[in-house]
């Protein structure tokens, strides 16, 4: 089944193509005829292939469109990235969401957003009604460029392209940089939507074991040599889900391998503003020749105000701008103006200062509460919102997530983050979403 | 050159692959060695291939990313979709833009937008800071579903997925529905960004001659039989650039062919609200089984408030939602709330009533001014913003566009809309952008 799915996914089998006969395929795979019959039957049930009386099995006809969930392995729902995303996004207001990746609404700078909206209601007509330029609002690009300079990343505003979100930035870069079948490295574990995104691009996804200081450098080196990837996607600071940050030595060694093997890196820096001490940035160490730096304000300012950015070499920004025009025509200025006005008015810095303190307190409190349930953090992050925790021996995270969901709690079980599926006793907790004492009662009950 | 580009574009040649030897390729193509040498030299100059001493020519190494402008034919700048888009979007405030596809800021409902922003500044916190649900703001989807019902399109709100724009809607659908190399039909002429978008998807683009009542039905039938397309993208009402609308008979015949040959149609309906009398909608006649209906408010409300939508069969909406999560995570509610509040408060309808009257007046005035320069509309549209015009005999639209640009006027020459490049004596004018009398002086001068 997996082989057929893969051939369809990689377009070695196209719609209308005839599948190998049951006998031929059984022989080829070294399995029994009945195994193939069963596999074909299941593919028919899934609507991927169809049988035509007397003439065999065929890949389904044209009108069956791409189903990303069918690319890659069929996963148990509890550890399927799409399912976890949908659970978090669709959760009813009365549900608890320690598994989601963002702050509660009450932790966000609503006063600043309300003020920015009032200011915007008085701005010039063009801002309210016109398309933005293809690169996006110039004063915001200038400000972002100055912000990146504080991390040692050397950019000009013309090297910054605004997008609708951080995810959209990575998506656009994948379209720009990779072809179906290209190998892409991700951290294992990593943000689960990277897997979903790369499945949509039909990439060959390879994981690199992730340590408390960043990716395992020896493994990284070996895997790069073995798999010749085109791209590596990572978080340098406050890695999702582990909360770890790159050490300078790891950063340097990763970058050496990257340069030696002509790799491109996407450095997804959306948690930067949560840091107490900035981690080294690959884009600072290596420049923007082969490192692409992206960010957004969804986690710190508002997820409703859609605005992300890409910083890359000028050549690539030019090609990316064409791609932006072709696939979205242009950006509006409304969301960028809102972000700009909040970044400029001084309240954003104060909000982040307060947020870091509040998160540190929550981190301590949630750690001790989890520990009292036998759930122990794998490491203690410097800052941020995530705690990556080991469950008591023998406990399965997917099972726990399923039980908890029945009780109205959305969890994020380890394997949803792990391409190698080696995190079945781990769980990611968002400390900002663990305020409600009811959560720990439910957890205790769900843990049996 | 075109052959090599195409092979690279369709991934028959991958990066690092060796090109055929000069002699072998010359023989294969039936041209002289020196022609191949010249072509290879130009590809080297363009950075697409490189020569390695003694061992021949190779497709350039990994770090050269996708360049959409290199997919498809190399076009003269004046008729390159990307260049025209960039000229319009990047135009300085003092430039005139009869070639652009949107209304001047002063024609947009700024009072309503300002009021909606003030209202939004007082809304609940979650709206300001949280992600929206994957499908997008429910009350807006309900309203859109009711609006579509007035065109006879039968949808439930669950069949409506919000996107960031109309273009993004089409882009998402292309990712969902087509594979590189799939044939996609577009009207000839059609909105130029369809070509750019489809080039990004590496589709095989085929044009259907467009008449005053919609696509030429006999040609459509023949082309569908010959090229077995997967998809057809069109505007049913107030077609861009011709301003024509589908006649009921053409709609019926097109749909018959579509159904017979298992085609999917994307009906891009972004000009609906400009119509005086609604044209028949393919989505109304055929239902949403194989017709997908999309829209946005960029042209009538604001291009800065990014919000579009897709109406499709429930199955597809489910797959599209996964794609939306993978590639953009989710939408925010800010832009949808703005659109909703303006659609609901009654001012949008008044704005559109006034706009239609104002456009009708502009249409008459601009027609007569253009006629006095010997520029004659090919047909008289019922409504809308576009006039598709024939230039005086012997005059080339690309040349005229270049001359006008030197004088600060952005025009949209015919061939930018024409996949067959058979519109070199045609020009699209946006009557709302032709208010300034200076424009006609400049045109006259540029026409020589």
From TrEMBL, chains A, B:
InterPro entries given in the database record = Aminotransferase_I/II_large, HTH_trans_reg/aminotransferase, PyrdxlP-dep_Trfase, PyrdxlP-dep_Trfase_major, PyrdxlP-dep_Trfase_small, Tscrpt_reg_HTH_GntR, WH-like_DNA-bd_sf, WH_DNA-bd_sf
Give the matching Pfam families. Answer: Aminotran_1_2, GntR
Keywords, A to Z, come to: DNA-binding, Pyridoxal phosphate, Transcription, Transcription regulation
GO terms of molecular function = DNA binding; DNA-binding transcription factor activity; pyridoxal phosphate binding
Q: Where is the HTH gntR-type domain?
A: 1-62
Q: To which protein family does this belong?
A: In the C-terminal section; belongs to the class-I pyridoxal-phosphate-dependent aminotransferase family.
Q: What is this protein called?
A: GntR family transcriptional regulator
Organism, scientific name: Thalassospira lohafexi
Task: State the taxonomy lineage.
Answer: Bacteria, Pseudomonadati, Pseudomonadota, Alphaproteobacteria, Rhodospirillales
